[in-house]
Amino acid sequence: MAEVEIKALVKGGKATAGPPLGPALGATGVNIGQVIAEINKQTSKYNGLRVPVKIIINSETKQFKVEVRKPFTSIMLLSELGIEKGKKANETVGDISLDKLVNIAKEKSDVLLGKDLKSKVKEVLGTCKSAGITCDGMDPKEVIKKINSGEIKIE
User: Fold this and answer.
1) What angle do the packed helices 140-149 and 117-131 form, to 10 degrees?
2) Which residue in 54, 97, 100, 153 has a CA-CA distance of 20 to 30 Å to 106?
3) Residue ranges with strand state E in the chain
4) pTM for this entry
């Protein structure tokens, strides 16, 4: 069985038959409308966020399977702040509460590398640092130090 894989980044719940998906799917002979409908159905909970998807198509039977991955951590952080882009140079683009950051770490728990929630929260704080986002008004490195010292508890 010959399989074709197509990977794309789509807006959750808003994929269309236009580029990049339409041309790539058209070349496989699969029903584009059905694929787009399935992608939109599976990504609707990430409405408007860019979501990585993989479409696996059996080139003989034209059957397909859609695999949806969670949005990138940086995209989830920026979305939570209502902004589209991270920092330029050394600017701060926003501030997120620790509670919201912990929720993102929990949502991404299956793909983050940390062994426990505390480690995963620190991983998300690292992404905050790269994107120019503070946490509860503090530099993410300072929050990590307070987590490590026990001053901030992550349950």
Assistant:
1) 160
2) 54
3) 3-11, 50-58, 64-68, 94-96, 133-135
4) 0.76
Q: Which domains can be identified in the chain, with CATH numbers?
A: 3-68 (3.30.1550.10), 73-149 (1.10.10.250)
Angle at 24 between CA 60 and CA 38, to 5 degrees: 75
Rounded distance, CA 116 to CA 36, Å? 36
Given 3-state DSSP classes, what are the helix, strand and coil percentages for the chain, each rounded to the nearest 5? 40, 20, 35
**How much is the pLDDT for 21?**
87
What is the C-alpha separation between 36 and 33, in angstroms, rounded?
5
58 - beta bridge partners? Answer: 3
pLDDT for 41 equals: 94
Contacts of 128 (CB under 8 A, 6+ apart): 77, 96, 101, 134, 135, 140
Residue that the structure tokens 């939109």 belong to? 40
Is 109 strand, coil or helix?
coil
